[in-house]
Structure formats: structure tokens, C-alpha cells
Amino acid sequence: MPMQQPIRWGVLGAARIAVKHVLPSFRSARRSALAGIAARDPDRARSVASRFGIPRTYASYEELLADPAIDAVYIPLPNDLHSIWTLRALAAGKHVLCEKPIAMSAEQARAIAEAAARCGRHVAEAYMIRFHPQWQRARARVAAGDLGEARAVYAWFSYDNPPGDNLRNSPAHGGGALYDIGGYALVAAQWLFGTRPERVIGLFARDAAEGVDHLTSGMADFGGGRQLVFTVSTALPRVQSVMLYGTRGRMTIETPFNPAADLPTRLLVDDGRDLYGAGLEVEVVAAADQYALQLDAFSEAIAADRQPPFGIDDAICNMRALDALFRSERSGAWERP
Fold it and tell me: CA 20 to 30 Å from 125, out of 32, 154, 294, 313?
């Protein structure tokens, strides 16, 4: 496929994350063209298509997957449908970028890997943060030794999702805080430490009526004295923060997960010389659309027929960590991914 030709994308579903974040990002993507959308409600699909200038709508997901004019699909469906439709898309010969979590277990993720290998197609899990330049700069500063030896990451991610008719409140659909946003803390720590967790443990508070975890904290041991502590919640005010502590300083990523595409971000680096900011350095990072960067990175991998930057093996490791945290809820002990 000539490198100058954009990859033609289809979207399975008109979920909020797609409409609010991903579909608008196609406008600024260089290598990715939005070609079609299918939704359970045809009127909803037509409305979204009109809003974003999508040339074609489909009566069903299957019809979209059968269209040879679609090269890759983006899947923002409920969590319990991720592996099902990823497998169907691969069987139809499509490359797949699937929202997180890519599956409900590492076993399902491994089945996706096997299918991708059979079909000769690429799959990635949509943790877009790793494409934002603020995370590139954060990792570069860690590698340069600006903070000394990286020792601890503390991550917080919360928002308020009231009880009610919402798939994020349904255990059957993979609802709850850990599945929805817990992976971001793990991915952030892996990115900064440059390695995987060796063992994890979690503390879960579940909604008595709906059964999903609405407040979950965890720890992960990355070996070599490196630790992650995190809290995620779907029942607290909207807050995001990631702090990395090293032997010679600390770094705060102010808006780590959902920075606005049109606003700069900041890294706050403090050498700890006092408690009042005398050693504070503020690095401003230019605005960037992390969703567009993610789309183009995946499109470029398709065009070059090479593995995307974070492929299915990465997704399997992410799912193993989530599986281990859920096991720790039952065992009350450390678990190995």
C-alpha cells in the first residue's frame, strides 16, 4: 500500500468515547481517513455520520466488516464485546484498534493474538496516552536521570458515574473502576519504569446494589525497589494526577490521561530542596491530539506492514496485571501477573 494513501477506517459503534474524543481526532490525523460507521441504532449512526462527515453508514457491524473499502476498524463497544468483535473483525481481514481493556481476561487476549497471527493482521489496545508528547518528555527525563533513580509512581484517576442505567455500572458488561480506568495507572508506571510489574495486590470497594467496584486501590511491585500505588474511582469527583518520585527529585504530570488537544500541558519537576517550591522547574509541553497521534501510528504500521508501537503482546501483559488484581481481591494476597 503506498505510504501516501490514508488508511480507511470503520467504526463499530457510536459510544461516547468515540463521539467525544476519537472521531473528532480524525480531522487532524494525517494517515487515517474516517470511511464508515455502524451502530446498533441506524438513526444514531446516520446522525454521527452527518456530524463528522463520514461518507458511509452500515445497517450492521457485520456489513461494515464485509466492506472491502475498510482497511481497519476502531472498536469502542462495551468491554464485554471487545474480544468478540475484535475476533470477528480479524476474521473479516481487518486490522483492529480496540478500546481498553481489549478483553475481559488475558486468556481472551491470547486468543486475539492467535487469530491475528493466523490472519496476518495487526491489533492494538487503545491506551492513547503513550503517544502524547508530555509522556514522551516524561520518559526522556527519567532516562536522562533528571530525577535520579526512579523509585515510586503514585497515580490517581477518578470521576463520578452515578448509579443507574449505564453499562459502566454493569458487572455483566465489564463495568467498574478497575476495568474502566485502572489500566491507565499500570500503563503509566510501566511506561516510566520501562518494565512490567512482578506482583500486585488490590483493595476493592464494591457498590452494594450493582456489584461493580467503584473505588479500587492497588500496589504493584516492579522489582528493583520500584513501586506503583494507585487509586481509581467512578464515585468521586473528577481528578487526575501522576507523580513519579526518584532519588533526586519528583515529577508531576498534571493532566496525565485526558489533556485537551488544544491546550499545552505541564511537567512539574522539583528537586526537593525545600517544601515551598524553591527547586521547582515547570516544563511546558505543546498541545497535541493524542488520539490522532495514536490513529496515525497505527495506520503507519499497517501501511508499512510492521507491528504497531504497542501491539497485542503489550495488551496481553496489561490484561495479566488486571487479572492478577482481581485474583488478589479474592485471595487477599499478592498475586503474580
Answer: 154
Active-site residue (options: 31, 88, 100, 132): 100
User: Nearest-CA neighbor of 150 among 252, 246, 267?
Assistant: 246
- Tens of pLDDT, residues 64-104: 999 999 999 999 999 999 999 999 999 999 999 999 999 99
Q: In whole angstroms, how far apart are CA 269 and each of 180, 248, 284, 285?
A: 29, 10, 11, 13
SS (H, E, C) 147-195: CCCEEEEEEEEEEECCCCCCHHHCHHHCCCHHHHHHHHHHHHHHHHHCC
Per CATH, 7-128+292-309 and 133-287 having the same topology is answered no
Asked whether the CA dihedral 81, 87, 93, 99 is positive or negative, the reply is: positive
User: Could you report the per-residue pLDDT of 244-301, keeping only the tens digit for each?
Assistant: 999 999 999 999 999 999 999 999 999 999 999 999 999 999 999 999 999 999 999 9
Question: Would you call 100 a catalytic residue per the annotation?
Answer: yes
β-pairing, 235-246 vs 150-160, is: antiparallel
Show the cell assigned to 212: 461493580
Provide the whole-model pTM. Answer: 0.95
The domain made up of 7-128+292-309 is a member of CATH 3.40.50.720: yes
Q: Looking at the predicted structure, is the pLDDT value of residue 2 above 50? A: no
Sequence ranges of the domains in the chain: 7-128+292-309, 133-287
Residue 168 φ/ψ, nearest 5 degrees: -70, -10
Which three cell numbers mark 99? 478500546
* C-alpha closest to that of 7 among 51, 64, 50, 69: 69
Band of residue 209 on the pLDDT scale cut at 50, 70, 90: confident
pLDDT, position 169: 85
Q: What is the pLDDT of residues 152-165, one digit of tens each?
A: 999 999 999 987 77
**Which string of DSSP letters, residue by residue, matches 221-240?**
E-STT-EEEEEEESEEEEEE
205, β-bridge pairs: 215
Give the number of other CB atoms < 10 A from CB of residue 3: 8
Q: For residue 74, what is its C-alpha cell?
A: 476502531
